[in-house]
């Protein structure tokens, strides 16, 4: 088992075997990131490939810290670039800050992880994108607004919309 430092060093030296090892170690996790931003598996596989190409090209920029976290940021940015390039959706433009809607805990406790992922994948693209960035990746609305060239209010509105849609779906499942 290679350490992260050994993987980085090998990739810096252009060692194909080490690049393959790095890919094998992190491909599953990064594919999960890619799948959160698209409903299409083939498109997610394309983003996975693009993300690893960028990671190998930029490996010299990696500094001490979590290699997984560094890679994840590259993959999130790759997915966002893909989203912007393809203009998958027009985000709802609304400057109002809507009240946050909490989901019912009982419904969430009964759900399996794969069921929750399936519900998130059913969200409209704009709502799904914001939900993933905020709730899954942990970005604040200020950063999301900058990344997507939208207002904070739009980001908040899309998150509220996503939460409401998920809450509605959970209520249907509970009944």
Describe the structure.
The chain has 9 helices and no strands. The chain is an all-alpha fold and 175 residues long. It has 2 domains: 83 residues, RNA polymerase sigma factor, region 2, helix turn helix motif (Rna Polymerase Sigma Factor, Chain: A, Orthogonal Bundle), CATH 1.10.1740; 70 residues, Arc Repressor Mutant, subunit A.
- Give the % helix: over 70%
Number of domains: 2
The unreliable regions are 88-110
Corresponding CATH architecture of the largest domain: Orthogonal Bundle
Helix-strand pattern, N to C?
HHHHHHHHH
Mean pLDDT: 82
Strand content: under 5%
CATH topology of the largest domain: Rna Polymerase Sigma Factor, Chain: A
Distance between the termini: 49 Å
Quick one: CATH superfamily of the largest domain? RNA polymerase sigma factor, region 2, helix turn helix motif
Strand segment tally:
0
Gross geometry? elongated
Give the number of helices.
9
What is this structure, in a nutshell?
The chain has 175 residues and is an all-alpha fold.
